[in-house]
Amino acid sequence: MERNLEQIVAMLQEGNTEEGLRLLQEREKHADHQEMYDLAMIYNELGRADKAQPLIEELISHYPDEGELYTLAAENLIDMDREDEAMEWLLEIKEDDDSFVRAQMLLADLYQLQGLDEAAENRLKIALEAAPDEPVLLAGLGEYYLERGDFSKSIPYLKRAEHDGFEYPEGSLELRLAEAYSATGEFESALRYYEKGLKEHTDVQALFGYGFTALQLQDYELAARKLEELKDLDPEFVSLYPYLIQSLEKIGNTEQALKVAEDGLAVDEYNDVLYTESGKLYITAGDEQTGEHRLREALSLNPGNIEASLTLLKLWDTQEDYNSMIDLITYLREIGEVDARFDWFYGKALWEEDELEEAKEAFDSASSVYNEDRDFLEEYGRLLLELGDRKKALTYLQAAARLETPDEDLAMLIADLEEEL
User: Fold this and answer.
1) pLDDT tens, 309-359?
2) Which residues have CB under 8 Å from 225's CB, separation 6+?
3) Above pLDDT 90, what percent of the chain?
4) How far, in Å, CA of 26 to CA of 265, rounded?
5) What is the rounded (10 degree) CA torsion for 372, 374, 376, 377?
6) How far apart are CA 391 and CA 137, in angstroms?
7) Long-range interactions of 175-180: CB distance < 8 A, separation 24+
8) More confident residue, 66 or 295
């Protein structure tokens, strides 16, 4: 008994694939045009684009003006990784065809995959001219700009799609708008869209964006709450940890911030940023030895970690460990790390070690950056005074006094030098 298509499909759904495919192939031999189309759709549902494609091409030979068939052929070819052939079919679809807009969107995707962004954008604009109020196209153009990082361009299209009631089959239009607003610095608008979008759709990347945006608005409690929520949801989302630590520090919860740093290192033991944050927190908590150890770990993983180096230099400066300061900065210079802050610390350490001329050279290197820093100007002035250059010393000390009302000691020193000179 010959089975109809519904019976064959049921057989396939029950797992009798080999027999089902054999029967489908038998039906092809005597299929009319409608059955050929139905068979092609069944093959597509089974993920057998290779079987569907000859049927679609046969139908195109009979209906050369049916753009839908060309689109189906192109989609099958894309599934078979034959993108160039897919483009040829899509380019055949005429502008007055109902499938024209869909074809332009597919072409845009294909051009984008090939890195031809300008060609992709042009296809989307052609489609928009043909269907200026099509919500799916507006959303597509908005997402195109979003993926490209052109966030300000994406917002108007996404807003129009939102106004027209567009909804993604997967994901959230609101969360895409939130991302775009956050990236353009419109944090208040971003926060509203994150709030709305996350009520409807849980997304770890969006939750991270929500916490980050709240941090930019200095709403540290909200940032900590959302990032903690993300941590509970996906503890291996390593990027959250530095921002959660920062949020917790800002609300004065150093103990919890330290725990978060340790949790982060348990997830990623090679993360130099987390070693740095951990080291800073231990120092704040009074455990300078552990803090120093963590900072050294950070530098062993990434010698170019400026934050770790500066934190160590500040620690050693307070501990008057000037030899360690000199050794670290010498090493950093050897590996090509250059920073005016290093020069300042180097100058201070050399000064304390009575290497005055070398200290002056280091202060000279830093002076172009710190010529409006009150502490730097006073320190340099006092170094110059010790070197005997009283006139130049007075210039730096006066500059420091202009930036901030001097204390009694500095005021008296300036007065004595002015009187002397």
Assistant:
1) 999 999 999 999 999 999 999 999 999 999 999 999 999 999 999 999 999
2) none
3) 59
4) 61
5) 80
6) 71
7) 175/201, 175/203, 175/206, 175/209, 176/142, 176/143, 176/146, 178/206, 178/209, 178/210, 178/213, 179/146, 179/151, 179/206, 179/209, 180/142, 180/146, 180/151, 180/152, 180/154, 180/155
8) 295
DSSP string, 76-102: HHHHTT-HHHHHHHHHTS-TTSTTHHH
Asked whether the beta carbons of 345 and 325 are under 8 A apart, the reply is yes
Q: Which residue has the tokens 């630590």?
A: 245
Q: What is the pLDDT of residues 362-419, one digit of tens each?
A: 999 999 999 999 999 999 999 999 999 999 999 999 999 999 888 899 999 999 888 8
The residue among 116, 188, 177 whose CA lies nearest residue 152 is: 177
Q: What are the backbone dihedrals phi and psi of residue 4, each rounded to the nearest 5 degrees, phi first?
A: -85, 175
Can you read off the two tokens belonging to residue 144?
A: 């195109």
Q: From CA 67, how far away is CA 121, in angstroms rounded?
A: 22
Q: Which residue has the tokens 């995959």?
A: 113
Q: Within 13 A of 48's CA, how many CA atoms are on the CB side?
A: 16
Check if the beta carbon of residue 166 is closer than 8 Å to that of residue 194. Answer: no
Q: Which two tokens stand for residue 15?
A: 């797992």
CA distances from 220 to 183, 224, 226, 245, 253 (A): 19, 6, 10, 10, 11
CA neighbor of 167 nearest in space, from 158, 155, 180, 179: 158
- 267-288 confidence digits (pLDDT tens): 999 999 999 999 999 999 999 9
Instruction: Decide if pLDDT at 211 tops 70.
Output: yes
**Contact by Cβ (8 Å): 120, 109:** yes
Indicate the angle between helix axes 240-250 and 204-216, nearest 10 degrees. Answer: 40
Q: How far apart are CA 183 and CA 154, in angstroms?
A: 11
Helix segments in 320-407, DSSP class H: 322-334, 340-352, 356-367, 374-387, 390-403
Q: Give the global pTM.
A: 0.75
CA distance 353 to 341: 19
Location of structure tokens 């997830």: 267
